[in-house]
Prior knowledge:
- 16% of the residues lie in helices and 36% in strands.
- By secondary structure, the protein is an alpha+beta fold.
- The strands form 2 sheets. Strands 1-2-3-4-5-7-8-10 form an 8-stranded antiparallel β-barrel.
- The longest helix has 15 residues.
Amino acid sequence: MKKYYSLFAILVLLSSCNDKKPETLSKANISKDTIALQTGNNENVIEGIYETQAEENNSDDCAISLKMTKTKDGYSYFLKTKTRQLKGIATFTTEESGEKYLVLEGIKWDEYEGDISHEEEENDSIASLEKPELEIPVGITAGYVKDTLTIQNYGNSMNSYTKLSECGRKYIRLIKLQK
């Protein structure tokens, strides 16, 4: 029994050595993912300017910049391509797998055909006549790790879509510029 008391005393002593005080939040409606970004170390700070870089063996011109700005309610973005300039709110999600995503709200995808893997079967049936028009998704999701945001720009033969048609890359990598 004395072993347990001494082990408990050691654990209490070790836990009291942490002099880092918890940060308090002023807004109760901030998502836990945003809180993690605001209170985390520099790896998790999303604010800054991101740009595409030239890629070897890829001659397409894909000049995209994204400016992320911290606001009192979260984050906003300003996306600039060679044909458009868009601004809006950025939100964050985390998958069950632990993967983190940034969502650029309000950007309408350029093309979306949805799941076309069963298209031949549907063409043979009467149901194809009653096929509803697909709604084009809004919001572009980018995975983020350290200083890089990655957007899967287009799908494949089973799920056909294009998010930003002014860039021909399948994966758009936006790398944070150093100050």
